[in-house]
Design brief:
By secondary structure, the chain is an alpha/beta fold. Helix content is 42%, strand content 19%. It has helices at residues 35-48, 60-64, 66-72, 86-94, 110-122, 138-144, 149-165, 180-193, 208-224, 239-252, 275-286, 304-307, 339-352; strands spanning 9-11, 14-16, 23-27, 52-56, 78-81, 99-101, 127-132, 171-176, 199-200, 230-232, 261-264, 294-298, 313-317, 321-326, 329-335. Helix 1 (35-48) packs across helix 3, helix 7 (149-165) packs parallel to helix 8 and helix 9 (208-224) runs parallel beside helix 10. The longest helix has 17 residues, at 149-165. The protein is elongated. The protein starts with 8 loop residues before the first strand and ends with a helix. The structure holds iron/sulfur cluster.
């Protein structure tokens, strides 16, 4: 998996593309003009590991709330999501937005495009062009018959060429569909065509359970091919869940480290302890840890430590007792009712180690 080298852009202090770590994005679902609620949710997203937050700018009240939101949440860059109205983009730039998500081909006459490009250039603000399969131009739909990866790429390139015509190159692109194979193909084609950084996502992916799977398959397949610079998991649910899922996808591909990893066996006929409740308790305990440790919760003493040899610390259950092991080596044998307590003590020790 050799990542494609894309042009580097900066969204506030976050480097995107050009070999920078893949960043996680999410989007608030508060009313943007409710400054307190929006800033609070941005804080939750940041705490969960989000690098860049997108906020909807549907009207001027929302656009004028940006500077106040940024005062409350200065550490995390904000992308303003704007459709059609170039005045909202200009106000968002004045208010200190860190990037715009706007399709220049939808702004209207060229003077308006030039005004947005000029403002973005002056403040060195990148523009993300976002093409969705569900809202392709009529002319493209007529020509292709229905949304296709090629039509999505052609649509994105029209917007790209419009910005390039005005010497604007701080561009990021997304080509989202809720159909996973179509999304994968569209990003592959785009990646072969331009060097701009790509923002990956499966749009309208669904609820937390089904959307997680679709996103993991689509985003994961692309990242595994070295395609993608930022990711957003779109879920019908709490956006904090989006960040957690995105982090797990990046962790699964060894692209980023986000706190601890829990390794737990699926249980089988050898399991003699209530492994499910033990694994859940360990997962809860790990939620507050930032250190990237690997903790294993295994069902049997015969295979457990060996199967989880790479874990920093782990337990393996037996009948009425369990083993605590570290890197596959057994540390001690403890009664079953003390297993969790002893494991947590060992985790505390690892946390304290430099
Ligand atoms: Fe079964 Fe032991 Fe493997 Fe768990 S670790 S699945 S209990 S063999």
């Amino acid at each position: 998996m050799k990542p494609k080298t894309t042009k580097q852009i900066w969204i506030g202090p976050v480097a995107v593309g050009g070999g920078a770590p893949i960043s996680v994005q999410s989007m608030t679902n508060t009313r943007t003009e409710d400054v307190q609620a929006t800033a609070a949710q941005i804080g939750q997203l940041r705490d969960a590991g989000c690098d860049i937050v997108r906020i909807a700018i549907p009207d001027m009240t929302a656009a004028k709330a940006i500077s106040e939101i940024k005062q409350l949440q200065p550490q995390i860059p904000l992308v303003g999501d704007i459709h059609f109205d170039y005045r909202l983009a200009l106000t968002a730039v004045e208010q200190g937005i860190d990037a715009l998500r706007i399709n220049p081909g939808n702004i209207g006459d060229e003077a308006k495009v030039i005004a947005v490009v000029k403002a973005a250039k002056q403040r060195r603000i990148p523009i993300r062009i976002g093409v969705n399969a569900g809202s392709l131009e009529k002319e493209l739909l007529m020509r292709y018959g229905h949304p296709t990866p090629e039509a999505m790429v052609e649509s994105a390139l029209r917007h790209v060429r419009l910005l390039e015509k005005h010497d604007f190159y701080d561009i990021k692109l997304s080509l989202k569909a809720n159909d996973v194979p179509m999304t994968i193909k569209a990003y592959q084609l785009m990646s072969e065509t331009v060097d701009y950084p790509l923002h990956l996502g499966i749009t309208e992916a669904g609820t937390v359970s089904s959307g997680t799977i679709k996103s993991a398959v689509g985003i994961g397949a692309l990242l595994a091919q070295g395609i993608g610079d930022t990711v957003r998991v779109s879920l019908t649910g709490d956006p904090v869940e989006e960040v957690k899922v995105a982090a797990e996808i990046l962790k699964a591909l060894n692209l980023r480290q986000y706190g601890p990893t829990l390794v737990s066996c699926p249980t089988c006929g050898r399991t003699q302890i209530n492994l499910v409740s033990i694994a859940e308790a360990v997962e809860k305990r790990l939620a507050s840890i930032k250190k990237p440790i690997k903790v294993a919760v295994m069902g049997c003493v015969v295979n457990g430590p060996g199967e989880a040899r790479e874990a920093d610390i782990g337990i393996a259950g037996g009948r009425e007792f369990g083993l605590i092991f570290r890197k596959g080596e057994i540390l001690k044998k403890v009664p079953e009712d003390k297993l969790l307590e002893e494991l947590f003590k060992e985790i505390d020790k690892i946390e304290e180690e430099a």
